[in-house]
Structures are given as structure tokens and as C-alpha cells.
Design a protein that fits this description.
The complex is a heterodimer. Chain A is mainly alpha-helical. In chain A, about 75% of the residues lie in helices and about 0% in strands. Chain B is globular and about 75 Å long. The chains are: A mainly alpha, B mainly alpha.
């Protein structure tokens, strides 16, 4: 186990090293910090002096080591547009993104496990077929389009009146086809500040309503994947000898499904799922753009538009770190849960 | 020797068509209405996209044909529409139907181009890794692992943003199609590389490869002439899914402003440009191209699902 742990940590460090080299190369080649610091009127000789003073003329390796040394202490310099340390800017935007991801993860787990298990237990029931059909449609809809449709339906509202409105049944059918709208779909509203710095949407009911549409959109991209995965794994487990044996022994079906089979189903789901939860961070860029949700993704896009290089670099490093941490944790949890995993980490 | 030759020549050689006709692939296709409908819709969509310059009532790239006064007209079934514009017009007064047909063309070109790019990179690296093994294998697969541990979308967004920052917006717009093909191709090659490597590893230990090696064929010949043809069916299956993914990736990049410019829109940039007008009630500018995108991706995914079930290579277990 210790060897496995060290191997994973070594791997994580290697990945962070590669990310830092990419990030540094970006910082080194994109934009001119001198240009950003001083105006047009400063003569070339002064620029050169400043460049020398900041160490921008040093060899690549020296500059990289300085960058890495600062990066380890979470010092990435100042953002051009915010005039604040980039880490502070990111920390201010981080809660919004994390809460969005947390709410979506909750939705995904709460919905995919029962639906996946049900459609594995009753693969031929019409409800299972319905879920499978919906899930392949769900995979085919890009996350920003789901978001736009949700905005149209629940924020703006739709009114269809194909049936005669003056009759009772017509008005009722029209009412079924139309939606009210009015759900908030822009920004976070007024989040409550807790623990001094953390703005949360979970503390108040109005805060939660702001969270609903973005979280549902973000969940919609992963939900079909999880349902299909859980269903496939569960189907496989239900074929195995020990389930047949448990059935022959007369153990109640419910106990077989939810205690015996579900445990082994969740193993692969943890590995795939953990990694996918990490990739939700990528999809937050799209969701946050549609809903103008003031998180890291929106901040990153704005930073790109304004060529705010230090902020771009910091975002890449921190998101890289989040990915590496989730992947390493998933590997470790998998190693703990499944003792048969090859602890040496060599491919089978 | 001569007898075997003559007997082979005189035996009725099955034509390619009859071989296909009698195959399991065709048999299961005949029995699967969803696959048939999907293929039909897919061919129809590709057809109208390819024939867009002849089918579309207007040329959306031609500024002279655009009437700004006719902007934001609704589609034909909504009050206030103009019969000249079947699907209505967008905010610039372009006929939406024509713009969608041209946009689908752009999306399909980028989708197929990006998959060709991925396949080229992924198949070469996968073959090398699987056949050579050792350090080459360890290095390439480690690279693939690292890249896959980030989502491919994330890689595409970051690379797209950097390329745009390096070249500047104007140059980026001019070369958007080849650049997007390159970006999406670079972001997704590991999928191919892993699949190909897995099947190469399975094939490599088979007797026919040993035989070829004993006969003194070069590594390159064995890789491309002997092993590659046997890895084609998993490549074929992931290609369908990858085309759908590439079209979605392109739409996502365009939606973020990192893809096709609005003067030369793909379906994604049409959705983006329409999204600015959804609050003012002009839902059709964004939702009709959106519906087109979903149908296109859906039929490709359905075809991919069917193919995977039929060919059933253990794809994601490698």
C-alpha cells in the first residue's frame, strides 16, 4: 500500500510539473508584462532597465525555477485587470464554482443510482426503455443548449395555445403546454457570506432558486453517462455466480439488489465517476457563461478576452491541481475499496 | 501449384456487394428500424448540408443579399412572419434556413476533419505504442493518460484560447476551420491511441504475426499491412461517436467565442449569436439551429450505438 501511495504521489507530482512547464511557457510567450506595467510614453532604455530588474532577461531555466518557487507558495503575481494578487481573485470566484459543482454532483448521485439500478433490474420495462432513450438524447444535447432551453422554458416562459382557449379542456391543455417562467437565470442573486469570506447560495431559499437552473444544466451532461454506466455494471453483476447463489439460497430480492449487487456495481462507478466529477469543472466554463454565474469559468473566459496572462496562468495551475487531486484521490479510494487492485500500478 | 491457382480462378468470386449483402452487419441493419431511420436522417442532413449552395434560398455570406430591415422575423408558423423567410431571420437579417444549411456544412466539415486528424495521430501513436512496446509505449500512454485525466473539452478550450491569443482574433477568424480541426484533433487523439493499442496488443501475439515475422517482413509492413486491418472494426466504431463529439466540441468552442466567426457561422456560433436575443423573445435564432445540432448529433450517436452492439469489440475495457 505504501509503495502504491508513493507511486501515485510521484505520478501526481510529475503531472503538476508538466502543467507548470506549460503554464510557464504561456506566461513567457504571451503578452509583454512591461507593456502592461508602463504606458506608451516610457522610453526603450527605461523599459530595458525594468526588464533587467524584473529578471525577464534571465535564461529560461532560471526564470522557470523562480516561477516554480513562487507557484509552490501560491504566488502568481498580480492580475492586470483586477490589480490584485491572482490567487485572491481566484479564491473569490472559487466558492461559486464549487457550489455549482456540489449541487450538480448531488443531483447526479441522487438520480443516477436509483434510475440505473431500476433499469438494470427491469431491463425490459417501458420505464427503463424510456430512461435509456432519454439518456441517449441527453448525451446528444450540448450543455449550453440544455441551459438555453431551460432559460426559455423556466426563466422566460413559453405560451402555446393550439387548443381553443374558451373551452375548459382547451384551456387546461394549453396550460399544460405553457410554462410560467420567472426562475432566476442570471448571476447568483444575493449570496449570504459565511465564515468571513465564503459566499454561499445554500443558506437561503432565494439563493437556492438561483442555483437550480445552472445546477440542472450542469448535471444534465453527466447524468446520462452515469445512468448508462450504473446500468451496464449492474447488469454484469446480476449475471455473476454469487448473485445466482444468493437467489438460490432464498435471500430476499431487495437485499440481493441493494446490498449484494450494488456494492460491486459501485466499484467501477467510483473510478469513472470520480474522474468525471473532476471534468465537471471544464463544463462549468460553458454553464457559467450562459448563466453569467460569477465563478472561475466565467472569470477564465473574461481573462482570455482581456489577455490577463497572470490570471490565465493561475487558473490553469489551480484547475490542474484540482484535476490531479481528484484523480489521485479516486485512485487511492479505489485501492482501499478493492484490495485486488494491482498495487504496483503496472498495467495488467 | 498450378492446380490450386486454376481452381481459385474458376471458383465464383463473391462480389463485394453480395458479401456485404450476406453479412451480419447488413442482416442486423435490416432488423433495426432505429438504425435505418438514423441512417436515413443522417444521409438527408449531410445531403442538404453538402448541397446548401444550391438548396438555400439565400447566400448568407453575401452581404448584398442581406436586408437589415428584415431582421428578427419569426418562422412561418408564428404571427408576423414573412413567407419569403421560411424559418425566419436572425438579428442581422440573414435568412435563418439558409444560414443553418451553410452552418451545418461548416459543422460537418470540422467534425469529419477533426476526426480524421484524431485518427491519424491516434492510430499512428497507438500502433507504435502497441507494436514497439517498452519505453515508447510507456511514454505515449503516459501522455495519453495525462491528457485524458483532463477532460478533452477542457484541453480544447485551453488550446483554442491560447491559439487565439497567439494569432490574434482576426487571423484566427480567417483560418478558423483548419485551426479548429487541429485543436479538436489534438484534444481527442488519446481515445484512438488507447483503442488501437489495446487491439494491437491482442493481435500481436497471434500466430499470423509470428508467421509474418518469420518470413522476414519489416516491422512497418507488419504494422500497416497485417495488424492495422485487424484493428479496423473498433476504429470504425469509435469514429462514429467521435464525429458526434467533435461536432459538439466545435459548437462549444464557437459558443464560447473561440470558434467560427459570426460572418461564417457554424451551428455553434449561430446558437451563440441567437442567445443574445433570447431575452427579447426571438427564441428561433438560437433554438432552431440548436434543434438541427441535436438531431445531427443524435442520429450519429444512435448509429454509433448500433454499430457498437453489432461489432461488439470490448472497447472501453482496454
Amino acid at each position: 500500500m505504501i509503495a502504491f501511495l508513493i507511486k501515485r504521489l510521484y505520478h501526481a507530482l510529475l503531472v503538476m510539473f508538466i502543467i507548470s512547464i506549460i503554464a510557464f511557457a504561456i506566461q513567457d510567450n504571451l503578452g509583454d508584462p512591461i507593456q502592461q506595467m508602463v504606458g506608451q510614453s516610457v522610453p526603450e532604455s527605461e523599459r530595458e532597465a525594468l526588464r533587467e530588474e524584473l529578471g525577464l532577461n534571465d535564461p529560461f531555466l532560471v526564470q522557470y525555477l523562480r516561477f516554480a518557487g513562487n507557484a509552490v507558495q501560491f504566488d502568481f503575481g498580480y492580475s492586470y485587470t483586477f490589480n490584485q494578487p491572482t490567487t485572491e481573485v481566484i479564491m473569490r470566484h472559487l466558492p461559486a464554482t464549487l457550489e455549482l459543482v456540489a449541487a450538480s454532483t448531488f443531483l447526479i448521485i441522487a438520480l443516477s443510482v436509483p434510475i440505473g439500478v431500476y433499469s438494470a433490474i427491469r431491463p425490459r420495462a417501458w420505464l427503463s426503455r424510456f430512461f435509456m432513450g432519454v439518456s441517449i438524447i441527453g448525451i446528444s444535447i450540448p450543455v449550453f443548449l440544455t441551459a438555453i432551453v431551460l432559460i426559455q422554458l423556466f426563466a422566460i416562459g413559453v405560451s402555446f395555445s393550439p387548443f381553443p382557449a374558451d373551452t375548459g379542456w382547451g384551456a387546461w391543455l394549453n396550460g399544460l403546454l405553457s410554462t410560467e417562467g420567472g426562475m432566476p437565470a442570471y448571476g447568483r442573486g444575493d449570496p449570504v457570506t459565511v465564515f468571513g469570506t465564503w459566499d454561499t447560495n445554500f443558506a437561503s431559499l432565494t439563493g437556492l432558486t438561483y442555483l437550480v437552473l445552472p445546477a440542472v444544466s450542469l448535471a444534465s451532461i453527466m447524468l446520462p453517462l452515469f445512468i448508462r454506466l450504473i446500468r451496464a455494471e449492474m447488469l454484469e453483476v446480476l449475471q455473476s455466480e454469487y448473485v445466482k447463489f444468493a437467489r438460490a439460497k432464498g435471500i430476499p430480492l431487495r437485499r440481493i439488489y441493494f446490498v449484494h449487487a450494488l456494492k460491486n456495481t459501485m466499484l467501477p462507478v467510483i473510478t469513472v465517476g470520480g474522474v468525471q466529477i473532476g471534468t465537471l469543472v471544464a463544463y462549468t466554463i460553458l454553464t457559467e457563461t450562459v448563466f453569467q454565474w460569477p465563478g472561475m469559468g466565467l472569470m477564465f473566459l473574461n481573462a482570455i478576452q482581456r489577455s490577463d496572462v497572470p490570471l490565465i496562468v493561475t487558473y490553469l495551475m489551480i484547475v490542474g491541481l484540482i484535476f490531479v487531486i481528484t484523480n489521485t484521490l479516486v485512485d487511492l479510494i479505489y485501492g482501499l475499496v478493492n484490495p485486488t487492485v494491482k498495487l504496483t500500478g503496472k498495467p495488467a | 501449384m498450378t492446380t490450386t491457382n486454376s481452381s481459385m480462378a474458376s471458383a465464383p468470386v463473391a462480389s463485394r456487394w453480395s458479401r456485404f449483402h450476406g453479412s451480419y452487419l447488413f442482416y442486423s441493419f435490416k432488423r433495426d428500424p432505429i438504425a435505418q431511420i438514423s441512417l436515413l436522417v443522417f444521409i438527408a442532413l449531410v445531403g442538404v448540408a453538402v448541397l446548401a449552395p444550391w438548396l438555400a434560398p439565400m447566400d448568407p455570406y453575401d452581404l448584398a443579399q442581406i436586408d437589415i430591415l428584415a431582421s428578427e422575423l419569426p418562422p412561418f408558423w408564428v404571427d408576423g412572419s414573412d413567407p419569403a423567410y421560411l424559418m425566419g431571420t436572425d438579428a442581422q437579417g440573414r435568412d435563418l434556413l439558409s444560414t443553418i444549411l451553410y452552418g451545418a456544412r461548416v459543422s460537418l466539415i470540422i467534425g469529419f476533419g477533426a476526426v480524421a486528424m484524431q485518427a491519424l495521430l491516434g492510430v499512428s501513436f497507438g500502433l507504435l505504442a502497441g507494436y514497439l512496446g517498452g519505453r515508447v509505449d510507456a511514454f505515449l500512454m503516459r501522455m495519453a493518460d495525462i491528457q485524458l485525466s483532463f477532460s478533452t473539452l477542457m484541453v480544447a478550450i485551453v488550446v483554442g484560447a491560447l491559439v487565439k491569443a497567439i494569432f490574434g482574433s482576426a487571423t484566427y477568424s480567417d483560418y478558423a476551420v483548419p485551426l479548429l480541426v487541429l485543436i479538436i484533433g489534438l484534444a481527442e487523439w488519446p481515445q484512438y491511441a488507447r483503442t488501437v493499442r489495446a487491439s494491437v496488443l491482442a493481435e500481436r501475439s497471434k500466430e499470423y504475426v509470428d508467421a509474418a515475422r518469420v518470413m522476414g517482413f519489416s516491422s512497418r509492413r507488419i504494422m500497416f499491412r497485417h495488424i492495422l486491418p485487424n484493428t479496423l472494426s473498433p476504429i470504425f466504431v469509435i469514429s462514429t461517436v467521435q464525429v458526434a463529439n467533435a461536432i459538439i466540441s466545435e459548437a462549444a468552442l464557437s459558443f464560447l467565442g473561440l470558434g467560427m466567426p459570426e460572418t461564417h457561422p457554424s451551428l455553434g456560433s449561430l446558437i451563440k449569436s441567437g442567445f443574445d436575443y433570447i431575452q427579447s423573445g426571438s427564441w428561433w435564432i438560437t433554438l432552431i439551429p440548436g434543434a438541427m445540432l441535436v438531431i445531427l448529433v443524435l442520429v450519429i450517436n444512435l448509429l454509433g450505438d448500433w454499430l457498437r452492439d453489432v461489432l461488439n469489440p470490448r472497447l472501453y475495457k482496454g
